[in-house]
């Protein structure tokens, strides 16, 4: 599915004078919408299961300068050329919320593909220990949130739309 778009993306990078592999940038998709990620985008929802309690998910509060700044979402961003969505999700998470524990288990993924030439893949990973103390230019805060409390937060619109699918992955793995 990405092949037709990869050629257009490569051409747009060449026209812009970029020589790197970065997928950063807004792109106009075949459905007429403009989205972030020249090669698509990916994110990760981390899950922590405390003994005897409801699962917790890590959410990141996006900094004010970011698209839909001040909202909560999972860590994520543009896929670089040659990266898989999984690789991009982990790279973006390490940049935005800090070092990821080495031991994690993939619970599933949800792919939002609104156009034939663009998709956002969210990977759901279970970790054994809390992490995520990083606050930087992309992240104002990091929080571990009970599943039942996520809907009460001011969510990024894209994450809000994906959340029911992501929650079902978390609950199915219980």
Any descriptors?
174 residues, Nucleoside Triphosphate Pyrophosphohydrolase, 7-stranded mixed β-sheet, two-stranded antiparallel sheet, 3 helices
How would you describe this structure to a colleague?
The chain has one domain (3-172): Alpha-Beta Complex (Nucleoside Triphosphate Pyrophosphohydrolase). The chain is 25% helix and 33% strand. The radius of gyration is 16 Å and the shape is globular. Mean pLDDT is 87; it is low at 1-20. The chain has 174 residues and is an alpha+beta fold. It starts with a helix and ends with a helix.
CATH superfamily: Nucleoside Triphosphate Pyrophosphohydrolase
Strand-residue proportion: 25-35%
The separation of the N and C termini measures 32 Å
Number of domains: 1
* SS-derived structural category: alpha+beta
Mean pLDDT over the full residue set: 87
CATH class descriptor: Alpha Beta
The dominant shape is globular
Spans of at least 5 consecutive residues whose pLDDT stays below 50 are 1-20
**Secondary-structure element order, N to C:** HEEEEEEHEEEH
In the CATH hierarchy, the third-tier topology is known as: Nucleoside Triphosphate Pyrophosphohydrolase
Helical content (DSSP H or I, runs of 4+): 10-25%
Number of strands: 9
What is the name of the CATH architecture?
A: Alpha-Beta Complex
**How many DSSP helices?**
3
Radius of gyration based on Cα positions: 16 Å
Can you summarize the main beta sheet? Answer: 7 strands, mixed
């Amino acid at each position: 599915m990405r092949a037709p778009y990869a050629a257009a993306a490569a051409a747009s990078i060449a026209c812009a004078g970029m020589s790197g592999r970065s997928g950063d940038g807004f792109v106009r998709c075949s459905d007429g919408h403009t989205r972030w990620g020249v090669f698509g985008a990916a994110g990760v929802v981390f899950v922590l299961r405390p003994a005897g309690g409801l699962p917790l998910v890590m959410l990141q509060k996006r900094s004010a300068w970011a698209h839909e700044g001040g909202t909560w979402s999972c860590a994520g961003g543009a896929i670089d050329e040659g990266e898989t969505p999984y690789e991009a999700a982990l790279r973006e998470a390490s940049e935005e919320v800090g070092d990821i524990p080495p031991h994690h288990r993939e619970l599933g993924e949800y792919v939002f593909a609104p156009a034939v030439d663009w998709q956002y893949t969210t990977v759901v990973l279970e970790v054994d220990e809390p992490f995520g103390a990083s606050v930087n230019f992309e992240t104002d805060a990091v929080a571990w949130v009970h599943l039942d409390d996520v809907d009460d937060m001011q969510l990024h619109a894209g994450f809000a739309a994906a959340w029911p699918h992501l929650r079902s992955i978390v609950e199915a793995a219980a």
